[in-house]
Amino acid sequence: MSAPLRAHLARREDAAGDLDAELRLFVPSDVGMVGEAVELVARHLEASFVDRHTIRFNLRVALSEALANAILYGNCADCHKGVSVRVLFGRHAIEMEVTDEGGGFDYRYLPDPTLPANRMRPYGRGLFLIRHLVDEVRFNDTGNSICMILRRT
Amino acid sequence: MAFNVRKQPGGVVVIEVDGQLIVGNRQELKQQVLDALEGGARKFLIDFTRTGYIDSSGLGVLVSLSKKIREEGGDLRLAGLNEDLKTLFELTKLDTLFAITESASEALAAF
User: Which of A116, A119, A147, B74 gives B42 a disulfide partner, CB atoms 3.0 to 4.6 angstroms apart?
Assistant: First the structure.
């Protein structure tokens, strides 16, 4: 059993725009820790973000997906590897960056899970859901880091 | 406890998902259903009334259980999805694969 997760919080005094707080979290490659990591992040953001529903649902599902992908596919569930989570947040915006220790993947070529031929597959819906639940998705060049952006007025 | 499992008098196995169905607990749900299937149960109702969110791993386990139950001549029904959860099923077009009812009592009556 892994040790409890600890989030590190900091103010961003010189931040431009709305993202004036930062949370960092290291999650071991254990899918059993995903629920705890998601709750930890969501609890810290609930008090400051303008829209609670976005935290309650969109953020939780998107972060769970990103962590699951990072652990299972990025780190191949290798317990010696971990996942770094960096969240910049303010009252109207959230940027969640999830980075694994893998070699990355080509995020541009993923089959459409809604096609009849793919619908009975038990996998392949993670990134599809992320793209629907957040306002913007970015990857680094390697493909081992995803940045998910949520904005609300 | 994430899952509350009980057997109704009519033989329907009802599983309530408390909190979330995600990558970290999907295997537990799968095992509960497979054990009941192995024990002879053929009618299953998964009740999401007290579920906050489901991720794609959770959806995936429902797809594989649905297939397995159908292969064994059984029936899987889903109930109690809130608007957010319904949206997940609609986005992924999984609403076309599952028998979904508003409430657990409606689902039980439909078996």
Answer: B74
Q: How far is CA B91 from CA A113, B56, B84, B87, in A?
A: 10, 11, 11, 6
Write down the pLDDT at residue A4.
Answer: 87
What's the complex ipTM?
0.92
B56-78: pLDDT as tens digits: 999 999 999 999 999 999 999 99
Does the pTM surpass 0.90? The reply is yes
What is the domain count for chain B?
Answer: 1
Question: Which residues of A fall within a CB distance of 8 Å from B67?
Answer: 120
Tell me how far apart the alpha carbons of residues A26 and A99 are, in angstroms, rounded to a whole number.
10
Tell me which residue range forms the domain holding A128: 7-151
User: Residue A1: inside a domain, yes or no?
Assistant: no
Tell me the residues of A at the B interface, defined by beta carbons under 8 Å apart.
31-35, 38, 56-57, 60-61, 64-65, 67-68, 71-72, 113-114, 119-126, 128-129, 132
Residue A94 inside a domain? The answer is yes
CATH number at residue B79: 3.30.750.24
Based on C-alpha coordinates, what's the Rg of chain B?
Answer: 13
Q: What is the CATH number of the domain that holds A78?
A: 3.30.565.10
Structural domain boundaries, residue B22: 3-110
